[in-house]
Design goal:
Elements: E1 2-4, E2 10-12, H1 18-28, E3 42-43, E4 56-63, E5 74-76, E6 79-84, E7 87-92, E8 98-103, E9 123-125, E10 128-132, E11 137-142, E12 148-153, E13 161-162, E14 168-170, E15 173-177, E16 179-180, E17 185-190, E18 196-201, E19 231-233, E20 238-242, E21 264-268, E22 275-280, E23 296-302, E24 305-313, E25 318-323, E26 328-334, E27 342-345, E28 351-353, E29 364-366, E30 380-382, E31 387-394, E32 397-400, E33 406-409, E34 417-424, E35 429-435, E36 447-450, E37 454-458, E38 463-468, E39 474-479, E40 489-493, E41 496-503, E42 506-512
Parallel strand pairs: 3-36
Antiparallel strand pairs: 1-2, 4-42, 5-6, 6-7, 7-8, 9-10, 10-11, 11-12, 13-16, 14-15, 15-17, 17-18, 19-20, 20-21, 21-22, 23-24, 24-25, 25-26, 27-28, 29-32, 30-31, 31-34, 32-33, 34-35, 36-37, 37-38, 38-39, 40-41, 41-42
Amino acid sequence: LQLRDDGGNIHLLRKLPEATYREVTSQVDWATYNGNVSGNRYTEMTQIDKSNVRRLAPLWSFPLSNALIENTPLVVEGVMYVTAANEVWALDAGTGRELWHYRQPRTAGVSGMAATGANRGVAVQNGKVFLQTDHAHMIALDQADGALLWDTEMADWRQEYAGISAPLIVDNVVIGGVAAAARGFIAGYDADTGAEVWRRWTVPMAGEAGSETWIGDAISEGAGTTWATGTYDPELDILYWGTGNPRPAYDGSRRLGDNLYTDSVLALNPHTGDLYWYFQFTPHDTHDWDAHEPLVLVDTLWRGEPRKLLLQANRNGFFYVLDRTNGEFLLAKPFLKNLNWASGVGDDGRPILKELPVIATGENFVCPSYQGGANWFSTSFNPATGLYYFQALERCGLFSTVNGGSSRQVPGEEGFQKYVIAMNIQTGEPAFEIAQGPAPATASAGLLTTASGLLIFGENSGSFIAADAATGEVLWQYQANVTWKASPMTYMFDGKQYIGVATGTSITAFGIVE
């Protein structure tokens, strides 16, 4: 047990047995990126419920930077840790008061999402806070004061590598992937020293197993990014990580074949990086449909029998159920109303391709667009309802292979529509949908469900919403007037439940107003 005095100093009063500590912190903390290493943003906290959610209001807000914030806060022992690119703040989780701040300069010349200042968060364990920097370093900070403890280069940023995702910790190994225009990889680092323990490449070198699925010269260009945080099953001791699309993104003529291990989930040994199994959602992808959507691990009945499942609403527009012990394909159903690239998924787990419409300009009209039917923001399975909740985007696009590959949105009247879908995982059919209001741009808003029966999410037109998780009835909304770029979380502080979320350029904590 710890006590923090008015000066922000921590005093150790009594150390609880490890099993007791885990039980207590699981009820009050949000100690990992998704609240649980299973990837499921479902909480047993029930103080905020359907009877009082109408009194939910912002209690404090802390401004971070001038860039839109994408991180999910962590709360560990009453301290909240939030990030922007190359920055970490430690805040009093009850008031938002700053306790310490770490910052290093942004790296000029980094590419992709890192150049926008994107950072998804940290990992915390054993007195250390772990962060990926924009130039693809993994660093460790002292949890008490933010002092730099070690700094390890994951890859040379000049080769178009970058870091944006929240690390995942398994035992004493800190695991992270990379945003890259180069060959993707996942790596594990010793939490005490920063030394690399293992590295798993996501695209084989010529001559290695899997290279036969790359026919042409594009295998050397790099692909299979790993920028979304993975998930972990402690009982099976298996790490699950999604991979990105092949390159060139839209022109497959120089990379015939399935292009392993892109657009896949990899099941790995978290201590060595050895591959147990893989499942490829979109073989030979030519539409930028990566597999970075959340990989949610659920222990539940499947068709009447207990089973260990992996759920994903994939960017290609299909909802998937796999047996996560061995990668066995169990179910895939389209969740979009407009999906024209495949007629379904066969018993072998491979999509059944359709001939794509070609418009007068020679471009293919494809649904979904390159943004996908789903994307990286959080999803949730609620064991009480048996439903899996995720944000879906109805939008089609035009694709061409001019100048090595390009794509653009369908202009004008096509537009887009976003929904929250509550999916029956047994059938792949929606139990209900919540249509979202019009907005000039598509938001990146995740969601959260609770044991008290709430579904909480950022709505595309800028509202923060709580709905009935069983029916979809909207119970409360707060117009934040932001284009959401982050996912919500929840925690307890001094006996009071809060909901935290990045609102534009700030972190805001909501709670019940008496």
